[in-house]
């Protein structure tokens, strides 16, 4: 189905892993400590962005002066504590399994590298990927193309020969900016 490409790149949260509900739950848990609020729809609009960017938005919306990196770190701790009970692979993981050993594959995510690695290892699929690029591996984040360009570089494949699987507007924009074809998994 994707044989015309030399490499496949997958976003992680909401694309190959059903982790979005857990991310939202962790955010709500942390925000309740401070009396902060954000609706789920607005939270979803930040999918693909680094956690600290959503934290910055939440702080601004709640007229607070908290450190966005500290708030993001608290959310990551809460998320990690919820991991074992809630994370499941999504159907697109079948594409990953089908192309394992046939094409190099990478994960390009807005999550931190260590968190992505932990999630993929927890589900026993880390070994299926040639590379993992997290938000802390690049300077410019989605919708900028850096995450996906770094994936292509680590796999040794020209960007134009890659296809990206994404579930968020920022990620779709990043893939297009990288000169890659993109499959919007929300439309599958």
SSE-based structural type: alpha/beta
Helix content: 40-55%
Oligomer: single chain
Give the neighbour order of strands across the main sheet.
3-2-1-4-5
Measured by DSSP, the beta-strand proportion falls in 5-15%
Over the alpha carbons, how many angstroms does the gyration radius reach?
16 Å
Give me the strand/helix succession.
EHHHHHEHEHEHE
Average pLDDT, rounded to a whole number, is 94
User: Tally the helices: what do you get?
Assistant: 8
Which overall shape is indicated by the principal axes computed on the Cα atoms? Answer: globular
Explain what the structure shows.
With 188 residues, the chain is α/β, with parallel strands linked by helices. Helices cover 46% and strands 11% of the residues. The protein is built from eight helices and five strands; from the N terminus they run E-H-H-H-H-H-E-H-E-H-E-H-E. The chain has a five-stranded parallel β-sheet with strand order 3-2-1-4-5, with helices on both faces. The longest helix has 19 residues, at 68-86.
């Amino acid at each position: 189905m994707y044989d015309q490409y030399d490499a496949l790149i997958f976003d992680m949260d909401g694309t190959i892993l059903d982790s979005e509900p857990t991310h939202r739950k962790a955010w709500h848990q942390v925000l309740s400590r401070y009396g902060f609020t954000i609706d789920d729809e607005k939270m979803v609009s930040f999918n693909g962005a680094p956690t600290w960017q959503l934290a910055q938005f939440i702080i601004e919306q709640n007229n607070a002066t908290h450190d966005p990196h500290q708030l993001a770190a608290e959310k990551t701790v809460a998320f990690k504590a919820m991991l074992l009970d809630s994370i499941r692979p999504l159907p697109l993981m079948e594409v990953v399994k089908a192309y394992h050993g046939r094409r190099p594959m990478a994960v390009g995510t807005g999550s931190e590298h260590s968190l992505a690695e932990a999630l993929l290892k927890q589900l026993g699929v880390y070994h299926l990927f040639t590379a993992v690029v997290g938000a802390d591996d690049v300077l410019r984040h989605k919708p900028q193309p850096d995450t996906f360009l770094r994936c292509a570089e680590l796999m040794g494949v020209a960007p134009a020969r890659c296809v990206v699987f994404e579930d968020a507007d920022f990620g779709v924009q990043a893939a297009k900016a990288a000169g890659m074809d993109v499959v919007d998994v929300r439309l599958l």
